[in-house]
Amino acid sequence: MDFASYIRDIEDFPKPGVVFKDITPLLKDPQVFQKAGEALLGLTSNMKIDKVVGVDSRGFIFAPLLASRLGAGFVPVRKSGKLPFKTLSETYALEYGEGTLEMHNDAILKGEKVLVHDDVLATGGTASAVCKLVEKLGGEVVQCNFLIELTFLNGAEKLNGFPIRALLQY
Fold it and tell me: Which CATH number fits domain 46-169: 3.40.50.410, 3.30.930.10, 3.40.50.2300, 3.40.50.2020?
């Protein structure tokens, strides 16, 4: 399926010079949304996965679906101050700023196999921070999954050799 035709470019968002890849046209079409979920699941190649980590906020769209289909638990990673229990945090850089992500400190058990999922791999700062959180808790990142990879931003270089899969590359 041509998922790229369901991705809309938004010029100068969230700041001048950035071309934002808007996935909402893909999400609003039920058949395309379902097929994208199936395609993302296919990227896991029948791996043994204990937890799927979804990144705030668009990573929450497909990560629970993937977790359910894989028979794995779902772990939300949120922006600072949004989780109610004790957390670990990691600061990261974006192409247009900086932020901090948090994960509950009991979300992942030592030795668990973890799939990290987000909508877009851009500069790699967000995904790298999530992988660091997983490793701090003793988890093993088996793959980082994305709907879109912006290859020209070289984000994969920040992921220290973790396997990366994406449905679309720009």
Answer: 3.40.50.2020
| Domain spans of the chain, in order of start | 46-169
Q: What is the pLDDT of the chain when averaged over all its residues?
A: 95
DSSP structure string for 127-164: HHHHHHHHHHTT-EEEEEEEEEE-GGGTGGGGGTT--E
Q: Which of 90, 102, 74 is nearest to 132 (CA)?
A: 90
Q: Is 126 helix (H, G, I), strand (E, B) or coil?
A: helix
Decide: helix, strand or coil at residue 108: coil
- Looking at residue 151, its pLDDT comes to 97
Q: Over 80: is that where the pLDDT of 96 sits?
A: no
Catalytically annotated residues: 58, 95
Question: Per residue in 12-46, pLDDT tens?
Answer: 998 899 899 999 999 999 999 999 999 999 999 88
Distances (CA, A) of 91 to 2, 11, 41, 49, 130: 35, 27, 29, 26, 10
